[in-house]
User: Which sequence fits this backbone?
């Protein structure tokens, strides 16, 4: 599953946060896109549950120590969520960023 900002951005780099989450950053080191590998495993869903997604909300919180990713997925029949916490060893700048897709 791939989720990105709607507005255009200048891609800088991708970082593997863990074996299932890859985060893209723009040239200012702002989070810009996410790839969730094995999404059904991350969101604890059956394979077909994520086929009819109505809305995705991603909130990223970065401080000098941690990068936190909060994801909510809404389908017609259910809601799935996941939280990831990673050490900020890339010196990403502090930010609070929301991304929505529907």
Assistant:
């Amino acid at each position: 599953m791939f989720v990105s900002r709607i507005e255009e951005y200048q891609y800088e780099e991708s970082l593997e946060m863990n074996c299932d989450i890859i985060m893209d950053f723009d040239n200012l080191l702002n989070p810009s896109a996410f790839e969730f590998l094995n999404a059904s495993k991350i969101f604890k869903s059956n394979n077909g549950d994520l086929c009819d997604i109505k809305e995705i909300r991603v909130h990223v919180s970065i401080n000098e120590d941690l990068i936190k990713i909060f994801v909510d997925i809404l389908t017609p029949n259910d809601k799935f969520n996941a939280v990831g916490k990673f050490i900020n060893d890339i010196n990403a700048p502090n930010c609070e960023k929301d991304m929505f897709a529907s």
The chain has a mean pLDDT of 90. The CA atoms of residues 21 and 36 lie 5 Å apart. The longest helix spans residues 39-42. The chain has one helix and eight strands.
